[in-house]
Amino acid sequence: MSSLDTMLNLLLASALASLSVAAQQAPFSAYSNFRETGSEWTVFHHPIKTVAVIGAGPAGLQAAAKLVEHNFTVRLFDRAPSPGGNWFYTDETPVREPYPDRPFDEAPHIPESLPSTYYFEEGEEGITLEDRWKEHWQPRPLWDNLHTNSPAVITELPDIPYSTDRPWVLSNHDIQRHVRAYASFHNLNANDYQTDSRRAPVTAYSTRVDKLQKIESTQKWRLTLRKLERLQETNRIKADWWTEDFDAVVVATGPYVSPHVATIKGLVEWSKVKDGEQYSVYHSQSYRRPQRYENKTILIVGASVSASEIARDIAPYARDVLASVRPHPNLHPFQLRSRLRFPDTTKFVPEIDHFGSLSAYNKGIKDATIHLVNGSVLRDIDEVILATGYIHSNIFLPNFTSDGQPANLHWTGHYIPDPTLAYTNVRPWTIGKYQSYAFAKVWEGTAHLPPQKQMQEDYDNGKYHFRGLFASAASEALFRQYVAWLNNESLINGGRFVEPWPVEKREVFVYYSEVEWIKGYANLGNFTDFETLPAREWDSDRVAWDAIVYEDTEW
């Protein structure tokens, strides 16, 4: 008998034994203590048949597509009029950010009786129809010449490969077309319709979730929804509120929700200043094109991705570009890359201590002064761009902390106190397809989560900390964890096997990171060394590179 035959016989025997003696199943080391809780895995109150997906960006589209493929009744909601998430570019700019930040948990208005319909008129409540529409769907913080800071090999959705002659660095327009193509391929675009008349429509665009609550009597999730529709013929906006109930919910709303403005003395007053029709101080979310900065002196506050890339975009047009930067003693590679991406002509200045007094609100800021922490003073500034990041707004979720981050999540993204709620908390381009498959398998019963007590203990003890930049130890650990777990569950319970990230793409990524990121950040050893590292040593000194935060929320 060949070694291959021996291995196949062992796998078959293992699978049959596991099916016949389910109570003794211990296929994955993380699941070894189930019997202490009375069940080997988390048991749901009732079968999961209907699932809501909130957000139609790269993560939400993958989740919806996979759940539809696994025969769930799915509803995909997004406040924007089309799919794309943060990669849905338009020339429209968001409504002006508040000064100071509004509370991250500020609740929206919901009529007392639902369903409800209302027609908004121009200027009602002091709000134009244009601003009411933009507040609802929130145009994304992209600019026309934005290019991704990751190569195509790690910025690609499944099923829709880029052309072989794609550019080395992708523009936001390339990515938007790619994401919309994925949506169309899976019948999830704004103009798609359900081809099976027995199924309800999947997509609901221009529809935002205002509230999410668990109904105790049915153990279902109830979404309170609001859809806006522009009625051009009567110059009104129609607003509809209603509710829909679901067995499970996927939250795929992405990291960039509300703009953050720094708390600096005098900034609130400066935020009121205009030069003509243009505000003199504004958040980077409103930046679109560089031509109007011709011969102007611009101060950019911040030093992260938006700050450095906008500086590069406007430098050929502006007279001077200054950047106010806070000191950071230990910059991780992406922060360092952002600093190095500023154009050579950038003049770096210290933090702002306070904005000076104003003589008027309608003459711009050129004659006003900006005082820095080192005592120096800036004058003759035409405009200030606040590249100070974003905050996560919590308008409907049960488990957000004060800094806007979801808490109590299993490494699979499931909410531990109630795993019928799940979050897309991984990088969608590379690990999103594994997580989406996991959602479908867990809720259809072909993959199992540990008991909630075990998941909570693992979370509290920091057993699974997988947040890291691509090619970091944390990222590689998560790849291996997903592939091993999904394939193990499919072997025992049925389902298609998954493959690891393609080996042939490693050298492409490593070369890109050497040229475009930080020299020495990644090499083939980041991948090959981790292949020989057992899980028990993932946190040991053998890991030669640090796990670093994936989302850069600093400025």
Automatic annotation (TrEMBL):
The keyword Phosphoprotein does not apply. Keywords: FAD, Flavoprotein, Monooxygenase, Oxidoreductase, Signal. Residues 1-22 form the signal peptide. One of its GO terms (molecular function) is monooxygenase activity. Residues 50-321 form the FAD/NAD(P)-binding domain. This is Dimethylaniline monooxygenase. It comes from Favolaschia claudopus.
